[in-house]
Design a protein that fits this description.
The structure holds two protein chains of two kinds.
Chain A lengths: L15 E6 L2 H12 L15 E4 L4 E6 L4 H6 L5 E5 H7 L4 E5 L5 E7 L10 E6 L2 H8 L5 E6 L6 H5 L4 E6 L3 H5 L3 E9 L1 E5 L1 H6 L1 H13 L5
Parallel strand pairs in A: 1-3, 1-4, 7-8, 7-9
Antiparallel strand pairs in A: 2-3, 4-11, 5-11, 6-9, 6-10
Chain B lengths: L15 H20 L3 E2 L5 E3 L1 H4 L4 H6 L2 E3 L5 E4 L3 H9 L10 E10 L11 E10 L3 H18 L6 E6 L4 H7 L3 H12 L3 H7 L1 H9 L10 H20 L4 E4 L11 H7 L8 E6 L8 E5 L1 H6 L6 E7 H13 L1
Parallel strand pairs in B: 1-5, 7-8
Antiparallel strand pairs in B: 2-4, 3-4, 5-6, 6-11, 7-9, 9-10, 10-11
Helix pairs in contact in B: 1-5, 7-11, 8-9
The chains are: A alpha/beta, B alpha+beta.
Chain lengths: ~220, ~325
């Protein structure tokens, strides 16, 4: 790859680079930025593009998978991004988390069939996309679990007997209801977070503070 | 038989032009330190673990690569130059002429999860100044660090300054109980605006601006330090026009001087005065860091003013390469 084609990580000579998720958090992120005066209309143009120039707002947008956003921000390729606290906790990077979006919140919960929350001393099998988080949550429980990492359709684990229960995100609870599962225990609230790296913060603090203040004034973050 | 060239996570090899480039950079930087009166020291990569045990936090112990040698002694790979230098120099101090100006280079090896930006092996170049008290020693060592950033042609270098324990008073007022104070300090370090605002308006100012509007809220000692650092920033602005320097106390919110809080944070630090970290305009992670660490020598039974810094040459090189492309 020639230097000319390479995406530069240098922040001094380019617009602020914002990493946005492609999934459910993009809707919440877009609503929040629009309320703060950054409509990001360029997102309507062509969703197949991975990099967009939001000239009106002075941003470059990177459209990424949730799980990749902490990496792009941590390595300084993006200055800031929106990522769920579930992913953030699992990846455990050294990122700054100045605000969390009000919209798009959901829950990280133990799910399974009714009454299947393990009794003290029990050893069970737990399916999850979040094995690091699961281990830290389990450290505070009176029961133990073998953690099985799955990449999707976590609910199938307890339904088909791959696992006794699952640790997963619950939004409306409809998928659980449709599959005869219940939310056994809410572990914590999950929120889309605005994250930024230390280097970008120190180099562009005034601009980033202005964006954060506009988001706060619009009451779309806290 | 095919032999794999794979390396463990977090380590790397430099071949040919990359190795030449590294050695050239080293030669340039060490020549600068030598011309400023600093002498090189070479220390081993393998050492006994026992002398460091009391100096390390739980987190620090977990990061060290240590094992039982064939003679039954517990040994560790070098995870930090400064405590090793302090341990080796402390018994010699009565026979040494102060001040001592020294520099070192080599690998430090620390376990890190396979996560973004985490290296297990890092090649460092650092310098220590021993026996020069107060601001004079701190300013000299900071200037040596800035000289190296200029010599390495790091684009858009920015150095943030702080004071160890600067936020202890504010944190204690906002959260008298240690576990809550630990959580609050972590939130301030992550710049969590809402948490800081609810805890104290001055903590919010620290998160947003790097320091409170009225530094006296931090106590007279810290306020005087902040005033001195502000004067230092102004003089560095004049002397090093290519480098930005600013005070940012939130950056170091978790480096407490309160023993109970430091223990709760599992981040016992040997720094006890000036703190600084250097960034380039291309990297999210610091190129290096430094500060005052008198209490490291005190814990070894020697009273000696000590300041130092180290740079990660891997990150310095990567930052300089971005500058070359720009």
């Amino acid at each position: 790859m020639s230097a000319g084609n390479r995406i530069s990580g240098r922040s001094g000579d380019r617009p602020l680079r914002l990493a946005l998720p492609k999934g459910r958090n993009q809707v919440a992120a877009r609503q929040a930025f629009a309320a703060a005066g950054y409509p990001l209309n360029v997102l309507d143009d062509d969703q197949r593009k991975l990099m967009l120039s939001a000239e009106e707002e002075g941003f470059e947008l990177l459209l990424l998978k949730d799980w990749d956003i902490p990496l792009y921000v941590q390595y300084g390729i993006a200055d800031f991004g929106i990522v769920g606290s579930d992913v953030l906790e699992e990846v455990d990077g050294d990122l700054l988390v100045p605000v969390r979006l009000v919209e798009g919140r959901c829950r990280l919960s133990f799910i399974g069939t009714a009454g299947s929350l393990p009794k003290p001393g029990a050893q069970v099998r737990l399916a999850t996309k979040f094995p690091n988080t699961a281990r830290s949550v389990l450290a505070e429980r009176p029961w133990g679990a073998e953690v099985v990492k799955l990449h999707g359709s976590i609910e199938l684990g307890p339904i088909l007997g791959l696992s006794d229960l699952a640790l997963d995100i619950v939004q409306t609870g409809r998928t659980l209801k449709d599959n005869d599962l219940v939310e056994l225990e809410v572990v914590r609230e999950v929120a889309p977070c605005l994250v930024l790296n230390r280097g970008s913060w120190h180099h562009r603090r005034d601009t980033l503070n202005e964006i954060l203040e506009r988001l706060e004034e619009a009451e779309v973050v806290r | 038989m095919k032999v794999s060239a794979a390396l463990p996570p977090g380590v790397s090899a430099l071949f040919f032009s990359a190795a030449r480039q590294r050695r050239r950079l080293e030669a340039e930087l060490t020549a600068g330190l030598e011309s400023a009166g600093y002498s090189e020291v070479i220390v081993p990569i393998l050492d006994y673990f026992e002398p460091y045990e009391a100096l390390l936090s739980q987190e620090g112990r977990q990061e060290l690569y240590r094992f039982i040698d064939r003679d039954g002694q517990q040994v560790a790979l070098r995870g930090d130059f400064t405590p090793m230098l302090a341990r080796l120099l402390a018994p010699q101090l009565p026979s040494l002429e102060l001040p001592l100006r020294l520099f070192y280079r080599g690998d430090v090896v620390r376990y890190a999860e396979d996560r973004p930006g985490r290296q297990r092996e890092s090649y460092q170049l650092g310098a220590e100044l021993l026996g020069v008290a107060d601001g004079e020693g701190e300013e000299e060592i900071l200037r040596r660090c800035l000289d190296l950033l200029v010599a390495a042609r790091v684009p858009g270098a920015r150095v943030v300054l702080g004071v160890a324990g600067a936020l202890d008073t504010l944190l204690e007022q906002a959260a008298p109980e240690v576990p809550e104070r630990d959580e609050l300090a972590a939130a301030v370090a992550r710049r969590e605006r809402d948490v800081a605002r609810r805890a104290a308006p001055q903590l919010f100012e620290v998160v947003r601006d790097g320091k409170p509007a009225d530094p006296e809220i931090l106590g007279l000692r810290v306020a005087a330090e902040v005033e001195r650092l502000e004067a230092l920033c102004r003089s560095i602005d004049r002397e090093y026009p290519s480098i930005d320097v600013a005070i940012d106390l939130a950056e170091f919110a978790r480096l407490s001087l309160a023993p109970d809080l430091a223990e709760a944070m599992r981040r016992r630090s040997y720094y006890d005065g000036l703190l600084f970290r250097a960034y380039s305009d291309s990297g999210a992670l610091p190129l290096g860091s430094g500060g005052r660490y008198d209490r490291l020598f005190s814990s070894l039974g020697a009273e000696l003013p000590a300041v130092g810094f180290s740079l990660s040459l891997d990150r310095v090189e990567a930052a300089a390469a971005q500058g070359g492309e720009g």
